[in-house]
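To the wet lab folks,

You asked to see what we're planning to order before we commit. Fair enough. Below is the target structure as tokens, and below that is the sequence we designed to fit it. If anything looks off to you, flag it before the synthesis order goes out.
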């Protein structure tokens, strides 16, 4: 667990979770509060349990605010805090970088796998 004396470690521990990046991205793209089911549909592949855990972590870390409205059934909305908006810019930058470079990464994987599949040759 990162210590308080290591700010980068503390932040990376939060942002390294893929569901965190997807949730921040979905909330940022929506540009307003989202209900749980709406958010769940915006993050394909996430389970209800993982999304709940992710949102709790983001709320605990001050990146997301959870609002409960006294209706029957209760209405719950999630939104980015100002800190979460700034973190959302990071996830957007990562997404843009990924789109620009995914081809290079896939090509490198193919080349590496092809080289690894050949028998090693002696040096000399």
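Sequence we intend to order:
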């Amino acid at each position: 667990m990162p210590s308080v004396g290591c700010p980068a470690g503390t932040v990376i521990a939060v942002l390294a979770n893929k569901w965190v990046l997807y949730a921040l991205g979905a909330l940022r793209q929506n540009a307003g509060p989202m209900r749980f089911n709406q958010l769940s549909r915006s993050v394909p592949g996430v389970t209800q349990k993982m999304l709940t855990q992710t949102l709790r972590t983001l709320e605990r870390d001050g990146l997301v605010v959870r609002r409960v409205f006294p209706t029957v059934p209760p209405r719950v909305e999630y939104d980015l805090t100002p800190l979460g908006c700034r973190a959302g810019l990071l996830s957007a930058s990562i997404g843009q970088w990924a789109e620009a470079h995914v081809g290079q990464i896939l090509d490198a994987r193919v080349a590496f796998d092809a080289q690894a599949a050949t028998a090693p040759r002696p040096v000399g």
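Structural context that might help your review: The CA atoms of residues 15 and 52 lie 16 Å apart. The chain has five helices and three strands.

Thanks,
Computational group
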